[in-house]
């Protein structure tokens, strides 16, 4: 990096911390800290969610998979087919949740099911999100270490020191602002990179013949990434991620009204695909460049096994092909993306700790300032825990890390089922709901042990269906009548009919279904190109 790049980086950090300081002074309660006082527009919240979804891991991982991984290519785009349908589902889960005015999505579970179910759901989140955050800290610190040319240990403490301090100062308000800036910077950087790449490769993005987009496979014979498991499994995976993972649902619940919650979901369902599409074509362009410029791959750092680290192919391209100043701007975007992934996670971990575990045990008249202090203390503690775990990641076998991700999919479906039951059914029998949840988890475990050839993406579907089916069967055996509460109250037959009638009338539904059709058409055209 040149001196100009360091100046750009310093000015950016100075501006961001100034914003965090200003927003932090206005915070008087945990709601201000965790939900940004519910003052941001739906567009800002959608941009923040998109920025977290399409952050450092996606920007580095997608081009590496598309351009250089065995079995990669544009098949990555199949993932995106599920997003609009998942957002459509969540209109009927997060909409009612926002109406209840909750901070943690798991509060919904206690309101209609019970305290034990809420703690079960919140505990699952704390475990899996804390592990994932530690891995993210490790990966992001490696990137910071490489692009800044500093030692890994220094990179960890520099990145986490800035992230924790920024989060403590500004909470979700500061996170949203930095996310929007990051999204603008990275999107602009990718577009400029595509233009530069196009000139270098004579606009032949399909030089490496990695344009296969659709794989007509049901995922029952060892192929994890066939079209059907990625579609159906992806719907439940994304619905669980956006709807049951506090790190994502927290922003959506921070909207000003139920209608704006639906707008956030709709905007995510529409604008996520164009971003991922850009990332994928970036991967194709970098792969084509590697065919023309033989020294490009040699400039990549190498892994322990002696193979190039393709996850760093985009930062290396920036350092080699961009002018000073522009390099600083783009690296600012990468560092901001790394901070975004981490500060969102530790803020949501703190939110669940305070709202689900601490606040219910305090006096109902506890001062808002006390909860605010608790939130900041928990943020600091979760940040420290993430740093400690990040140092253990190199000693964990990659197969174990893969297993952690798969275990997450074992729980996604049952957890989504639990929250759906709490949202759409009035007065739920808690034992029946919890038994269904654990049967869903156990059925996925059996599927993994005895049918390993079945794609793990199907676990998201099977876990959900088994959990719901067991719950319904138990209710039938007990003779308990199911009363639906899609509108927030026990719903009569006329209101259910009205909801069904409006499904294809509301603009949200039409736009999301149209986006699904557009994504499918684009994938088909690319596959036959």
Brief overview, please?
With 529 residues, the protein is mainly alpha-helical.
Task: Give a structural overview.
This protein has helices at residues 3-25, 30-35, 42-53, 56-68, 82-90, 94-99, 107-112, 115-148, 152-200, 227-244, 246-253, 258-292, 294-298, 313-321, 326-358, 368-390, 398-424, 430-450, 457-478, 493-502, 507-527, and strands at residues 425-426, 483-484. Helices cover 74% and strands 1% of the residues. The protein has a single domain (3-27, 39-527), classed as Sodium/glucose cotransporter, CATH 1.20.1730.10. It is mostly helical. The protein has a two-stranded antiparallel ribbon with strand order 1-2. Mean pLDDT is 88; it is low at 487-505. It is built from 21 helices and 2 strands.
């Amino acid at each position: 990096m040149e001196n100009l790049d360091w100046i750009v980086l310093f000015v950016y950090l100075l501006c961001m911390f100034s914003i965090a300081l200003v927003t932090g002074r206005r915070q008087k309660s945990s709601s201000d800290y965790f939900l940004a006082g519910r003052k941001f527009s739906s567009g800002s919240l959608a941009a923040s969610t998109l920025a977290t979804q399409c952050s450092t891991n996606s920007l580095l991982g997608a081009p590496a998979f598309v351009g250089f991984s065995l079995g990669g290519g544009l098949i990555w785009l199949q993932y995106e087919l599920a997003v609009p349908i998942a957002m459509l589902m969540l209109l009927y889960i997060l909409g009612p949740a926002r109406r209840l005015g909750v901070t943690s999505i798991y509060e919904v579970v206690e309101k209609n099911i019970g305290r034990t179910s809420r703690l079960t759901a919140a505990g699952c989140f704390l475990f899996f999100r804390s592990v994932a955050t530690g891995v993210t800290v490790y990966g992001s610190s490696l990137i910071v270490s490489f692009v800044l040319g500093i030692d890994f240990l220094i990179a960890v403490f520099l990145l986490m020191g800035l992230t924790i301090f920024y989060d403590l100062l500004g909470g979700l308000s500061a996170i949203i602002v930095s996310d929007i800036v990051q999204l603008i910077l990275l999107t602009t950087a990718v577009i400029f990179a595509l233009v530069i790449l196009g000139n270098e490769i004579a606009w032949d993005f399909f030089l490496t013949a990695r344009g296969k987009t659709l794989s007509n496979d049901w995922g029952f014979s060892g192929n994890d990434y066939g079209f059907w498991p990625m579609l159906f499994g992806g719907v439940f995976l994304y619905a669980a991620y956006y709807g049951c993972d506090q790190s994502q649902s927290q922003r959506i619940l921070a909207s000003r009204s139920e209608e704006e919650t639906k707008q956030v979901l709709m905007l995510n369902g529409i604008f996520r695909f164009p971003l991922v599409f850009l990332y994928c074509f970036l991967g194709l362009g970098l792969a084509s460049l590697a065919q023309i410029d033989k020294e490009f791959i040699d400039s990549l750092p190498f892994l322990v096994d002696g193979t190039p680290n393709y996850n760093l192919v985009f930062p290396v391209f920036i350092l080699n092909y961009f002018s000073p100043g522009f390099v600083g701007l783009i690296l600012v975007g990468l560092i901001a993306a790394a901070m975004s992934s981490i500060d969102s996670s530790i803020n949501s971990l703190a939110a669940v700790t305070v709202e689900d575990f601490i606040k219910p045990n305090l006096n109902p008249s506890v001062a808002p300032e006390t909860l605010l202090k608790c939130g900041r203390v928990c943020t600091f503690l979760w940040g420290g825990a993430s740093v400690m775990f990040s140092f253990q990641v190199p000693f964990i076998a990659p197969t174990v890390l893969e297993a952690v991700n798969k275990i997450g999919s074992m729980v996604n479906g049952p957890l989504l089922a639990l929250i759906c039951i709490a949202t759409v059914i009035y007065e739920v029998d808690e034992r029946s709901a919890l038994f269904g949840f654990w049967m869903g988890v156990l059925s996925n475990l059996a599927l993994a042990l005895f049918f390993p050839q079945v794609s793990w993406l199907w676990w998201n579907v099977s876990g959900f269906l088994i959990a719901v089916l067991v719950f319904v069967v138990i209710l039938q055996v007990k003779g308990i009548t199911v009363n639906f509460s899609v509108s927030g109250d026990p719903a009569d037959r006329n209101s259910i009919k009205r909801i069904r009638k409006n499904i294809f009338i509301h603009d949200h539904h039409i736009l999301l279904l149209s986006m699904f059709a557009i994504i499918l058409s684009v994938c088909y055209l690319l596959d036959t190109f």
